[in-house]
Design goal:
Elements (H helix, E strand, L loop, with lengths): L1 H23 L4 E2 L2 E2 L14 E6 L2 H6 L3 H15 L6 E6 L10 E6 L9 E4 L5 H10 L3
Parallel strand pairs: 3-4
Antiparallel strand pairs: 1-2, 3-5, 5-6
């Protein structure tokens, strides 16, 4: 009986210690429900926005590298204007939109308030317009 009480005390100490350390760290939230496990969170450098460029759009249409060219152009432009740390341009696999012409681009920003605009852009003629749109969403 004495051993059982000691085990219960140790278990209670571990539970109290764990709950104290969890209350100090913000609990990560997915779909407005706290996670049961302790997954570390970080604050990314690209707090103003994340630009997702579909790598499959242009490849499916003509085997070209138009999406890669657009991605590299956006990166260069953001670096040139000193915004590369605030925004991040990432190539992604199929986003499921699959336009006949153009490339699918999704802009995820803190200012969007949960609204993630999905844009269909011409990789050549819409570059400047896309860049202006990205800068407008700067948080």
């Amino acid at each position: 009986m004495k051993k059982l009480i000691q085990r219960i005390k140790r278990l209670l100490k571990r539970i109290l210690k764990r709950s104290a350390s969890n209350s100090q760290q913000p609990s990560p939230v997915i779909n407005s429900r706290p996670l049961e496990t302790s997954i570390p969170t970080v604050s990314p450098r690209w707090e103003s926005g994340l630009v997702l460029v579909c790598s499959q759009c242009a490849n499916e249409q003509s085997g070209s590298t138009a999406s890669e060219d657009l991605e590299n152009w956006l990166k260069s432009r953001l670096k040139f204007e000193g915004l590369w740390g605030e925004f991040r341009v990432v190539s992604t696999s199929c986003l499921g939109v699959c336009p006949r012409m153009g490339i699918t681009v999704v802009l995820v920003s803190n200012r969007s308030g949960g609204n993630r605009p999905c844009l269909i852009v011409n990789p050549q003629s819409d570059r400047e317009l896309l860049y202006s749109y990205i800068k407008q969403n700067q948080g």
